[in-house]
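Ticket #4471: structure output looks truncated?

Reporter: J.K.
Steps to reproduce: submitted the chain below (84 residues) through the standard prediction queue, then opened the result file.
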Amino acid sequence: MALIDNVRRALLRAFPGAEVRLRRKPANRVGGSLVWEGFDTQMQIDRQVQLRQAIGAALSPDQQPLVSFILTLTPDEEAILAEQ
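Returned output as attached by the reporter:
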């Protein structure tokens, strides 16, 4: 199974109802964005900790470093970015 599918499945399991947008990056990496209402009251560092915990629980140690930057946003933050 492809890494991108494993990451998507892990994120949807850890963040129910989230919108997950992933892309393949150079060197077989995966990156993208995760938009979830549950981030509404969380600081960015806490969001990233949750994200890394979800990835760590779902992917093998050799796959984890292949997950590049994933931006964590609330729906409101995403809407603001879309306006720019």
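Triage note (M.O.): checked the attachment and the full token line is present. Residues 44-58 form the longest helix (15 residues).
Status: closed, working as intended.
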